[in-house]
Amino acid sequence: MIYLLRHGEIDSGGKKRFTGQLDLSLTEKGRLQAESWKKELSCIKFDYVYSSDLTRCVETVRIITGSENSVLIKELREIYLGEWEGLSFDEVKAERKQQWEERGQNITGYRPPAGESFNDLKKRVIPAFSKIAEENKGNILIVTHAGVIRTIICHLLEIPFRRLFSLGLGYSGMYIVDNNADPVQLIAANKLI
What we know:
Blueprint: E1 2-6, H1 28-40, E2 48-51, H2 55-65, E3 71-72, H3 89-95, H4 97-105, H5 118-135, E4 140-144, H6 146-157, E5 173-178, E6 185-191
Parallel strand pairs: 1-4, 2-3, 2-4
Antiparallel strand pairs: 1-5, 5-6
Helix pairs in contact: 1-2, 3-4, 5-6
């Protein structure tokens, strides 16, 4: 089984923001979310643990496993949003209206200035995920980001990529995938606290 876990809550300053690859730490609530998963997953022996190398994922892994022995994979980072990183949705709508509209018309192909598109993210994430899934058997924990997990689930379930935001995934949300099934099967989508 592959357990795809989104990191716990981070501080967005009370506004919906384009966080991307900003290297932010977990909030207190985020640490509590990871503690809840530690308890929930305590009966599972993970044969392999992988993580994005960004602090919020590394912290989540450390809390859940009690160890820093995860394999850090840069390709599992969130989408890079270039000049939009750190800006609130309202700021982009107001100050970069044309860019906002262009992204809305082409959600998978649009690149914010100096950033990645979701298609770019897919080209980076799917080979890394496929390598993990093909080379490892047993229970695998992957702690990463919402965009990464949505990309993987769309790929595995052959959901049109333009619909990636139809997949719900809040902070500390998890999808469980049976990578031994043919075809691969989504077993569960879950969220604690």
